[in-house]
Amino acid sequence: MADYYQLLGVSRSAGGEEIKKAYRKLALQHHPDRNEGSKEAEERFKEVTEAYEVLRDPDKRHIYDQYGEQGLKRGAGGAGGFGGFDFSDAIEVFMRDFGGFGGFGDIFGQRGGRRGPGARPRGETIKVKLELDLGEVAHGVTRKIDLRLLETCDRCHGTGAEGGREPEPCSMCGGTGEERVVQRSILGQLVSVQPCRTCRGEGRVIRDPCSRCHGEGRVRGESQAEVEVPPGVTSENYITLRGRGNAGPRGGPRGDVVVLLEVKADPRFVRDGANLVHELPVTFAQAALGAELRIPTVDGSAEVSIPAGIQSGVLLRLRGQGLPELDGGGTGDLLVRVLVWTPETLTKEQEEILSRLREVEDPAPDRIRSGSGQGFWSRVKEAFSR
Question: Most buried in the list 49, 142, 284, 373, measured by CB within 10 Å?
Fold first, then answer.
């Protein structure tokens, strides 16, 4: 398994500019256009670009630092996302960030990151939300989601021209998709190259637009997609379905679908990563004498022993009753926070019994050791570390 930091030759504390500089150097070194189309150079170029794309993004980098490459593939940084990172994605990333700088366009036969003559624009990426409950988080789930997308026009088959005819080369730019603009300044004439205004840089024009899509090559439609959600996800995770988004204009490649995961709050638990916390109210008698009680778990219920003399706020741990780790490294625990309940109203009999108890009970200590001087979450973390 590749180490992205080693691939780029940077330390784990490297900043964004250092990462970008390291990638720029390696990308130029291994770009296939500089290596006579070498497959080895192409593979290396793809690897360093994948590493750069992860480490330049704070969210993906955080997931990678926690779970490694497997975490990204299994959904932490987009299941189905980096698992399908290919050479075309690498070229797109490179031209996006460096296409218009330092003469890279001249080196690789393009300028300003333009797609090249005849290349169709890529379709837009869409985002959808997917709600999950804790049971689905615990076991993983395969769900179908409804999508409203721009689909390829079935009348013109995506060409944008009536009858499905192919667009004609642009007469303004001769099919190059570029035009030269001459401007006068105090320094003389300045010549710049920019996308052709007639064909918008595509190098082709449609003389007779399709009557259904009006030359766009795509129309509104509805479809479904299947999403595989791995166990252990959180609301911070998302899943990328590559090539499942909107169709590109006039036959261009599809964009992606980004599925934003939303884990619904469960009133029974507070979640802390893979661990769960449940608050359990008990009576005076149960706290003083001990008891066997049932508590909820994600999949049902479990029995917990309340030891005699337990104090309010004490945490009891049920190992392995939490949620799975996203990286498959194990299962969290269920912590039970015991809260001694004080009744607000008493029957006459209860009042008499408690009055007799008050006459014989020991006085309360000046300070209760359990939980004193610590916040609740400090005690939770201490319990997890045992």
Answer: 49
